[in-house]
Amino acid sequence: MQASRARLFKEYKEVQREKTADPDIQLVCDDSNIFKWTALIKGPSETPYEGGVFQLAFSVPEQYPLQPPQVRFLTKIFHPNVHFKTGEICLDILKNAWSPAWTLQSVCRAIIALMAHPEADSPLNCDSGNLLRSGDVRGFQSMAKMYTRLAAMTKKG
């Protein structure tokens, strides 16, 4: 547990130092628990998520970095690799392809890349995956844009 705590403090210092280095990611550690983090990530440009800001919740195990963090979307998102109700994310690096070289920041980058390049063949959201697998890209994009507008964009007024 000491090693994981030390690693998380190191990542925390790195995030503080590089706040402006990656404007698409804002990682924040819970004030009272180094094992709980949240992130705000910007939807990638030229995707249906562009213009949206999505909140992620990180639950870091005591065996970190030997085990991956549990990450889920708190913001509703229409994406084949994200469970619509729970926000669970299907991403290999969060499961069997995890490496201690990954950081919370790099996990955020991987999630942004997944948003831009959905894997319709391993869907957690079958409706979304089926639209893409059947070739209805337009239908998928309009649903994803609609949910981005409803859940991930600030209301004006």
UniProtKB/TrEMBL annotation:
Its EC number is 2.3.2.23. The active site is at residue 90. Pfam families: UQ_con (PF00179). GO terms for biological process: peroxisome organization. InterPro entries: Ub_conjugating_enzyme (IPR050113), UBC (IPR000608), UBQ-conjugating_AS (IPR023313), UBQ-conjugating_enzyme/RWD (IPR016135). Residues 3-153 form the UBC core domain. GO terms for molecular function: ATP binding; ubiquitin conjugating enzyme activity. Gene3D superfamilies: Ubiquitin Conjugating Enzyme. Keywords: ATP-binding, Nucleotide-binding, Peroxisome biogenesis, Transferase, Ubl conjugation pathway. Belongs to the ubiquitin-conjugating enzyme family. PANTHER family: UBIQUITIN-CONJUGATING ENZYME E2 (PTHR24067). This is E2 ubiquitin-conjugating enzyme.
